UniProtKB/TrEMBL annotation:
<feature type="compositionally biased region" description="Basic and acidic residues">
    <location>
        <begin position="19"/>
        <end position="29"/>
    </location>
</feature>
<dbReference type="InterPro" id="IPR002470">
    <property type="entry name" value="Peptidase_S9A"/>
</dbReference>
<dbReference type="InterPro" id="IPR023302">
    <property type="entry name" value="Pept_S9A_N"/>
</dbReference>
<dbReference type="Pfam" id="PF00326">
    <property type="entry name" value="Peptidase_S9"/>
</dbReference>
<dbReference type="InterPro" id="IPR001375">
    <property type="entry name" value="Peptidase_S9_cat"/>
</dbReference>
<dbReference type="InterPro" id="IPR051543">
    <property type="entry name" value="Serine_Peptidase_S9A"/>
</dbReference>
<keyword id="KW-0645">Protease</keyword>
<dbReference type="Pfam" id="PF02897">
    <property type="entry name" value="Peptidase_S9_N"/>
</dbReference>
<feature type="domain" description="Peptidase S9 prolyl oligopeptidase catalytic">
    <location>
        <begin position="486"/>
        <end position="702"/>
    </location>
</feature>
<feature type="region of interest" description="Disordered">
    <location>
        <begin position="1"/>
        <end position="29"/>
    </location>
</feature>
<comment type="similarity">
    <text>Belongs to the peptidase S9A family.</text>
</comment>
<keyword id="KW-0378">Hydrolase</keyword>
<protein>
    <submittedName>
        <fullName>S9 family peptidase</fullName>
    </submittedName>
</protein>
<keyword id="KW-0720">Serine protease</keyword>
<dbReference type="GO" id="GO:0004252">
    <property type="term" value="F:serine-type endopeptidase activity"/>
</dbReference>
<feature type="domain" description="Peptidase S9A N-terminal">
    <location>
        <begin position="16"/>
        <end position="425"/>
    </location>
</feature>
<dbReference type="GO" id="GO:0006508">
    <property type="term" value="P:proteolysis"/>
</dbReference>
Amino acid sequence: MTRTSALISAFPAANPPTPEKHPVSDTHHGITRSDDYAWMRAENWQAVFRNPSLLDGRIRAHLEAENAYQAVLMAGTADLRGKLFAEMKGRIKEDDSTVPMKDGPYAYGSSFRQGGEQPRYFRTSRDGGSEEILLDGDAEAEGKAYFRLGGVDHSADHRKLLWAFDDKGSEFFMLRVRDLAGGKDLADQIPDTGGGGVWNAGDDGFFYTRLDDNHRPSKVFFHKLGDKYENDRLIYEETDPGFFMDVSGTRANDWIIIGINDHETSEYRLLPADDPSAAPRLVAVREAGLQYDLEEGGDVFFILTNADGAKDFKIMTAPVDNPVRAYWQELVPHEPGRLILSVLGFKHHMVRLERKDGLPRIVVRERASGEEHFISFDEEAFSLGLSGSYEYDTEVMRFTYSSMTTPAQVFDYNMRSRERVLLKTQEVPSGHDPEHYVTRRLMAPAADGELVPISLLYHRDTPLDGSAPCLLYGYGSYGITVPSAFNTNCLSLVDRGFVYAIAHVRGGKDKGYGWYEDGKRAKKMNTFTDFIACARHLVAERYTRHDCIVAQGGSAGGMLMGAIANMAPESFGGIVAEVPFVDVLTTMLDASLPLTPPEWPEWGNPIASADDYKTIAAYSPYDNVAALDYPPILALAGLTDPRVTYWEPAKWVARLRERKAGGNPVLFKINMDSGHAGASGRFSRLEEIAYIYAYALKVTGKA
């Protein structure tokens, strides 16, 4: 029996939807394409993001038919999904709580109630005591099919709470202000924001970004409490659609920082937090390829930048009264191969998170003497995160640590005494013994001689004779590094004999900034060939075999899934593409879409450049679907997703079914009540993961 026929027999017989064809052609650079399924894009997509009920009935009927089809094919996994969900839920401490972080007379944190889907925000007195609930996410979400909290920020006087929520999944957030004395929201309500805001020094108003009709944060406003939002003062407007904008503050509450960025260029403007009427002051004019970031430092700003050829970044300082580029002075020089990721400034110390030799590390610098020290760890591979502090004048900062076998730990670290205090270790109520698991780091040889890191987790009893199934996860875009962190969910696969693997492919910054540059634009193909090389290396090292590898990726990682399906379908036993960016060329040709102009530095601009058009066309998954014997494929999407619009996977699935050879099924599951992040509740999200894992078990014959 062939692999294909064996997999077909795993699914019940059912006829997939057969959508209508209405060819639409476009011509660019003398090249004409035809798209039979362009009609799946709603003409009123902006309105649908705000109100999903406005979706065209013909499109809705097709999407519902897709959901009905996948429900039939996955019906036999209902019991398995229930078991997987129960296991994953059993590893979560249902009434979990963060360690409160001190700020003045209080300490602020978040928690969940037993069975709760949404977080609650609370505070205690500075040194502990009873919790005062400031915002109850479950109460706010009641009666809503989708609910997601955005930013939550208390005022410096501790009397008010600025908070945001999205109840459509479209990432248009409503901003509200809560009076903490009475526990009620004020009349101030601001729609269509970016999801957060920053209090001014007087705590009588706040700065925020407002999204335009194309979902771009193009304007920063100041809202004075009690005023109508229609009368809010415009602080700054960004007219270039290729740049996104955000607004933030400093912990010392002295500056408001407006950040303007695409994927390779940045620009910042400053205004005093106590003077909302001030005109924003430019720090350094945008210059293509120049990146910089600001961090407070009292009388100076710390500036993390790639200026002057510092590919892996260096740290400069500049006086706060005149931080223009002419006055930048080097503090931490550029060191090739040491990628500085972020900087935190305190009154007496500066902390940086950097990556060297593929692993993160934290470096603490005493500002007066310049003396530096590292915070050391024992494991071979691990993940670190800087949690920082609410306070600027402090000697204590917070960080997190985990590995693929070690649950997350939260530490307070005294930067002067170097004392490390373990505050919390992630609890796994159903039990977790790290000794039952093995984590390893392999290096897969790529076709051009580069070595691609792979992080592995498997049960110590799993046979390494090539028979084990494997879930191979990848992303590889925007310089995002997938951490080798603890993940309780994947234990449900590992405990069933799976090898869980992360392919650290080019396009991330796993091996420095050059690793990112070698996986973007004209070099994007490296991302895909690296992933395929990882799959082949795992087989060569007898961790698995090709028909037992399930590849998984989401968003830009979903594009990776579509590309490897076209390039090496024989290397995988199944593919899971979550919110997959698969119609790359069409999207990059449409400047009206929310992310298109800011994404041109990442992918190229096929409107302006024939070379960019041809580069993208060579790998765009939708454009390269062919008569191949594809493995089983599962695509997942959300109707109100502004990042990867629902019609991309809908069209891709239709074309796959039309053109592919062989009988392996292609499934499409779309959440009609959510966007890019999927279900919003912590347990609702587990149901989606249980569905994906049940699919992986099914296509590998382990269900």
